[in-house]
Amino acid sequence: MGAHESMEHAEHAEHASGSNKKIALLISVIALFLALSETLGKGAQTESISKNVEASNLWAFFQAKSIRRTVVQAVSENAKLGLGPIADETAKAALQKQIDEWQKTAQRYRSEPETGEGSEQLAERAKHAEHDRDLAMARYHHYEVASAAFQIGIVLASATIITGMIVLAWLSGALAVTGLAFTAIGLFAPHAVHLM
């Protein structure tokens, strides 16, 4: 091997080393994005599960309040039927007072804004929790797509080092951009693109 060939070989090795460093940097950057999307995905998944449990609990509470209200209303209506035959005014007044109390209780079971535990407020809270659950799930799906794009991008970038095919690095970069786009959609507009 002559000096000229040796120099060409050294230049080629230096060029390949420089390219490999760029690819290694690309892999590192994509791995950072992957870690971010995975972390956001886990957070969104946890939020979705939490809000689903909250919604279920609120609907169960709503049903319990509705049953109590129905029972109290039925007892009150039944007691009203018994008012007519009572001749004793004192007993009649006492029963009417009890009926009024039952009606107040039934109304409180329906609406209790100060505690947020009337059936109307519970239904509103449950719907809000369901909305938050759906939002978190939409985010989670976008982060999952982003993570997949980043993972495939890392594989293609690694393959570039082995094969020397620069087109794989460009595909890897395109997948990184795609992953970033899905991460941004998940963060800022999760309902803009419907994945599931």
Automatic annotation (TrEMBL):
Keywords in alphabetical order: Membrane, Transmembrane, Transmembrane helix
Regions that span the bilayer: 145-168, 174-193
Keyword Transmembrane appears in the UniProt entry: yes
Residue numbers spanned by region Disordered: 105-125
Name of the protein this chain belongs to: DUF4337 domain-containing protein
Organism encoding this protein: Rhodopseudomonas palustris (strain BisB18)
